[in-house]
Design a protein that fits this description.
86 residues; alpha+beta; 29% helix
Length: 86
Amino acid sequence: MPEISLFLGIRITMYWNDHMPPHFHAQYAEHKAAVSILDGTVIEGGLPNRQLKYVLAWAELHKDELMQNWELGRDNKDFQSIDPLR
């Protein structure tokens, strides 16, 4: 699963040709979550509240880039790195 961003100890990844809805994966320590790109809901798993807030803020800032990566992944193409949260 390719890493597309890393910030504040949170690793953001995507799978190639993953199932719908469009989403990405976030991991912080032993916590893992799948997050919808479209509306920011956690569709699987969970993160501590502070890290979830960081992930959702980052996702809102990079929604277009996340959707572009989703489309690349659906076509089995390489993902583009996305700037971390600063």
